[in-house]
From TrEMBL, chain A:
This is Nitrate/sulfonate/bicarbonate ABC transporter ATP-binding protein. It comes from Streptantibioticus silvisoli. Residues 279-297 have a biased composition (Low complexity). Residues 271-297 are annotated as: Disordered. The lineage of its organism: Bacteria, Bacillati, Actinomycetota, Actinomycetes, Kitasatosporales. Keywords: ATP-binding, Nucleotide-binding, Transport.
UniProtKB/TrEMBL annotation, chain B:
Gene3D superfamilies: MetI-like (1.10.3720.10). This is ABC transporter permease subunit. Belongs to the binding-protein-dependent transport system permease family. Its main location: membrane. InterPro entries: MetI-like (IPR000515), MetI-like_sf (IPR035906). The chain crosses the membrane at residues 25-44, 77-99, 111-135, 147-170, 191-215, 249-268, 344-364, 384-407, 419-439, 451-473, 494-515, 552-571. Residues 73-267, 384-570 form the ABC transmembrane type-1 domain. It is a multi-pass membrane protein. GO terms for cellular component: plasma membrane.
Length: 456, 584
């Protein structure tokens, strides 16, 4: 590490000299599938320069946390390189310190001891550790809590300990993995504000920050650059936005709103549009297969709830407003939006989510009727259709889950396969197309669905 | 940043108060200091007796004078704690090696699984012979053998527990350690050991309870015609039995009970209460373990003073241990070299095992022929039947009782510690009384043996059933009341599924305990009369006494086979079912 941790925290403004601190070159990360490697990150090229805050934004499962950990040297990339100051990483990055979503405080150590950990690891004598930790604790607003144990603190105070622990080592780059998402809204807002004040004041003892988040507003509030990662078919950088707005940023400023809308559009943009450009993965609607049409993680209750809310707004609503009104974050809302779209119950046009005629009928119908509508829609979903047709051509009308598991294993990691089947089970059960017995792990065709499905 | 959260009074008053507290010695400090001195003195006095010269050919005399009992009890206690210390050391090293090395893990963990199923008592004779050869002419030989026997009953369980906590270390703690560049030493003492501490202490306590049984069995043992007896409570009872002295047996039982309860009170209870501080949870627990002794210690100034002394030492050690390196994993491993290393390791490990196995088979063929396995296989069926009956009857009797106790918080408060003591009390201590009863009533040992096995094993079922019943949420029970689900239907729908996971845990322990107990309960002696049942346990015990190693190896191997078989075919599927279907 270039900087000495024993030195007093610098009072001068950080040098925004644009030196490239972290870089990813052609970085790909894959996990083992059934017969081939399944990428979660593909061809990532990214640079983090001194003086900037970079936000990695994306839905869950898009690989943003994986990218952060590759840059921190905690997990190896499958191909390509992660570099720190131009040198490829061979182990944990010496120039970064991590702030965790779950705080990762050691509950058996006091606040002071937790903050000193990074210095102790460097072999600093006790007296120097105490001085440096005291300064960091001061800086982050934790004084008075030195002898407290983490379990005595509120969530916000705990994350302050997380920040102090990382900042005391004076890393070149502070890595934050969804640092505010485990906090309630007010606490998160407050802590975020204080952190940005500190960054602007020049007392911040790091030269750059990388923050992983799924919260669009948080990204636009904090970052100089927002990098949007797309989830499917696999994580790649879909767009990069520079945020030239002066800090502190005004949420009500028109440029702020325009940026949020623009980011929203990129994030809700249909996956099939992007998928179509990829070689070997033709994904025109006519040729949808379980492989190129993954089911979003959305429950039937959530879908019909969203449909009913849209009906109250005359079948159409601005997505950003909708999320705001529901107090939801992208992570919660987007799978529902994707699922409604996939089922042909709603469409995303511009910034708006609009119900289709079928979606409108689905939202208004009583339970039995809505089940029928949902069944028709679900049969157009490749995986649901695959399960129904496979069951129909099996004399016993039952099939082990392992059969579908094997079919999907060529295209998804085993975790993803489990999720796909869970959603398909949930939808199929609700639509009364088939039942699933968790004991023997068997799908069984429902009597009502024994007739061949309508062509879709 | 806001500084309004700082309570200004704390800063100025804290050091002043500390200084005041340190200068004021209270009577509590004096009591604690005196207690420590007494313990040290007793250890020195008692420990001095372990290395006296000793002639294995001479039959050691153990007095039956009750006045000698305190000394004997102290000697036994020393053995128990020596074995515990050994088990902890073994656990830390073995589990760490298995968790850290991918290659060693492949060998160490299956080995542990087998070791856990081997009936320890069968190997006692081998241990005695080995240790006597190691320390000729000193009582350290049998002493070590006894400690070793207790150790083998404790270590596997603790090692498994700690290994499990090492490999299931929360991901963010692992990342914390690597991201902040912890040294290996720091990772172990600050992250890994604290994370596993609670499991280690509770496993240690359970294993310690089981250890009494092996203490009693290992203090007086006959191997190859020699009778070895160490001064201790087990041999005291053994002598009293041999002389048919019921009064002496009574005194021994009383002392044993006092010891079990006493150790629990001054050692385990404070330890389990203290170790709560390592709970990895982010909120203050509502239901905490409490201990009078720990509260007392915490009120004295000693922990604070010792902490001050220890901190510089820890600092120096931590610095010296930097030599062990930083906790980091290389990001890229050459796959060819890695596979090459794997191949070499597999070849060496496989070669050693294969060579050992061939040698063993050759040994058996030369001595007795491989047909030696036939008899124990048949006899095993008889013992298996006994084990099954014991578990079945204990289930039928204790599950209803345990449910009744567990559903009533008032009963549970009284009964749970009591059952814990009963489970810890070495059942083989009561065998002579039971034998006397068999002799008086003429009950066959083939049936009576089952009662002896049950004497120790049944409590695990009761204990776990109580715990399971207590874990059934009150709102589920209220919902059943509300719906009018009572009687058989209530048992079928709520109670049995609810207690099932806990019951399976108890059942596994009980069945393992019953197998081990078979070695001492199928042959019993009282006042010169020996009763022998038909079974694998008696077979192993016989072979031990005669020093007949081929038959001993065959007997122990077959018994291990039965234990592993029963675990794999019955308990493990049940356990999996409990985890997937009936986890509450």
């Amino acid at each position: 590490m270039a900087q000495r941790a024993t030195r007093a925290l610098p009072a001068t403004a950080r040098a925004a000299d644009g030196e490239v601190l972290l870089a990813a070159r052609n970085l790909t990360k894959s996990y083992a599938g059934a017969d081939k490697q399944l990428p979660v990150l593909a061809d990532i090229d990214l640079e983090v320069r001194a003086g900037e805050i970079v936000a990695l934004l994306g839905k869950s499962g898009c690989g943003k946390s994986t990218l952060l950990r590759c840059l921190a040297g905690l997990i190896p990339p499958t191909s390509g390189t992660a570099l720190y100051r131009g040198e490829p990483l061979t182990g944990a990055n010496p120039g970064t310190a991590m702030v965790f979503q779950t705080f990762a405080l050691l509950p058996w150590l006091t606040v002071q001891q937790n903050v000193e950990l990074g210095l102790e690891a460097r072999g600093l004598p006790a007296a120097e550790r105490a001085t440096a930790a005291g300064q960091a604790i001061d800086l982050i607003g934790l004084d008075g809590f030195e002898t407290a144990y983490p379990k005595e603190l509120s969530g916000g105070m705990r994350q302050r300990v997380g920040f102090a622990r990382a900042l005391v080592t004076e890393p070149d780059v502070l890595m934050m993995d969804e640092p505010f998402s485990a906090l309630d809204v007010l606490t998160a807002e407050n802590l975020r504000g204080e952190l940005m004040e500190l960054w602007e004041s020049g007392e911040f003892p790091t030269r750059a920050v990388v923050i992983v988040t799924h919260n669009i507003e948080e990204a636009v509030l904090m970052a100089d650059r927002v990098v949007i990662l797309g989830a499917r078919p696999f994580g790649s950088i879909r767009a990069t936005f520079d945020v030239p707005l002066p800090r502190p940023r005004d949420r009500n400023a028109p440029q702020f709103g325009a940026l949020i809308d623009a980011v929203y559009q990129v994030m809700t943009g249909r996956e099939k549009d992007t998928a179509g450009h990829l070689p070997g993965r033709p994904a025109t609607p006519a040729r949808r297969t379980p492989a190129n049409t993954p089911l979003p993680r959305a429950g039937v209750d959530g879908l019909s709830g969203l449909a009913e809310i849209l009906i109250q707004h005359d079948n159409r609503r601005d997505l950003a407003d909708l999320a705001d009104e529901l107090g939801l974050e992208v992570d919660d809302l987007l799978p529902l939006v994707d699922a409604l779209d996939l089922l042909g119950l709603a469409m995303v046009t511009g910034n708006d989510l609009a119900l289709t005629a079928r979606g409108s009928a689905f939202g208004r119908a009583d339970v039995q009727r809505s089940k029928q509508i949902f069944a028709t829609a679900a049969l157009e979903i490749p995986l649901v259709r695959l399960i129904v047709t496979s069951l129909q051509i099996t004399p016993a009308r039952t099939l082990r889950a392992g059969f579908f598991r094997d079919l999907l294993a060529h295209h998804y990691t085993s975790e993803q396969v489990t999720r796909q089947l869970e959603t398909a089970t949930d939808w199929g059960r609700y639509a009364e197309l088939y039942s699933y017995d968790a004991g023997p792990e068997e799908y069984r065709l429902d009597a009502t669905a024994a007739a061949p499905p309508p062509a879709g | 940043m806001t500084l309004s959260t700082r309570p200004p009074a704390v800063r100025t008053s804290l050091p002043a108060r500390m200084a005041g507290r340190l200068t004021r010695l209270t009577w509590i400090d004096l009591v604690v200091a005196a207690a420590v001195l007494v313990v040290l003195y007793v250890i020195l006095r008692v420990g001095a007796g372990t290395a006296v010269s000793f002639n294995p050919a001479r039959v050691t005399r153990v007095s039956t004078d009750p006045a000698d009992l305190p000394y004997y009890a102290a000697r036994s206690l020393l053995r128990m704690f020596a074995a515990l210390a050994l088990s902890v050391a073994f656990t830390l090293v073995y589990a760490y090696a298995a968790a850290r090395s991918r290659r060693l893990e492949r060998v160490l963990i299956p080995a542990l699984d087998i070791l856990q199923s081997v009936p320890v008592l069968g190997f006692l004779s081998v241990a005695v012979t080995g240790f006597i050869a190691l320390f000729p002419g000193s009582s350290l030989g049998p002493e070590c053998a006894s400690v070793f026997a207790i150790f083998t009953s404790q270590a596997w369980n603790m090692t498994f527990g700690f290994y499990h906590s090492l490999v299931t270390l929360p991901r963010e703690l692992d990342e914390l350690s690597r991201s902040f560049g912890f040294t290996r030493w720091m990772r172990f003492w600050k992250v890994e050991l604290p994370s596993g501490a609670i499991g280690l202490v509770w496993n240690g306590m359970m294993s310690f309870g089981g250890g009494w049984f092996f203490l009693v069995a290992s203090e007086a043992i006959s191997v190859s015609g020699h009778r070895y007896a160490l001064p201790g409570i087990g041999s005291y009872a053994g002598t009293a039995i041999a002389e048919g002295d019921l009064g002496g047996v009574g005194w021994a039982v009383l002392t044993m009970a006092v010891m079990v309860v006493g150790v629990n009170f001054v050692f385990w209870r404070p330890l389990t209460a203290w170790v709560e501080k390592f709970k990895n949870e982010q909120s203050e627990a509502t239901d905490v373990q409490r201990s009078l002794v720990l509260d007392f210690l915490r009120r004295s100034h000693w922990p604070h003073a010792l902490g001050r002394l220890a901190r510089p030492a820890a600092e120096v050690l931590g610095r010296a241990a930097r030599i062990l390196g930083t906790d980091d994993r290389p990001l890229s491993v050459d796959p060819v070299r890695r596979r090459g290393g794997d191949a070499v390791f597999a070849l060496v490990a496989g070669g050693l095992i294969g060579w050992g196995l061939l040698d063993l088979l050759g040994y058996l063929r030369d001595r007795t022929g491989l047909g030696v396995f036939a008899e124990p296989l048949l006899l095993g069926l008889a013992t298996l039947a006994r084990v099954v009956v014991v578990v079945a009857v204990a289930t039928a009797v204790w599950v209803p009782v345990g449910v009744r106790i567990g559903f009533s918080p008032r009963l549970a408060r009284i009964a749970q510690p009591l059952v814990q003591v009963l489970a810890g009390f070495p059942a083989n201590f009561l065998f002579p009384l039971a034998t006397w009863f068999f002799l008086r009533t003429g009950l066959s040992i083939n049936v009576g043996g089952m009662m002896l096995m049950a004497l120790g094993a049944q409590w695990y079922i009761l204990f776990n059933t109580i715990a399971g019943a207590m874990a059934v949420p009150a709102d589920l029970r209220e919902a059943m009341d509300d719906l009018g689900v009572t009687g058989r239907l209530r048992w079928k729908r709520l109670i049995l599924p609810g207690i099932f996971p806990a019951y399976v845990t108890g059942g596994i322990t009980a069945s393992g305990g019953a197998w081990n107990a078979s070695i001492v309960s199928e042959i019993v002696t009282f006042g010169g009369t020996t009763l022998t049942a038909t079974g694998l346990g008696a077979y192993v015990a016989h072979a031990t006494e005669r020093g007949d190693y081929p038959h001993l190896i065959a007997g122990v191997a077959v018994m291990s086979l039965y234990v592993v078989g029963l675990n794999r075919l019955l308990w493990r599927p049940l356990y999996r079912l409990a985890e997937t279907r009936y986890a509450l």
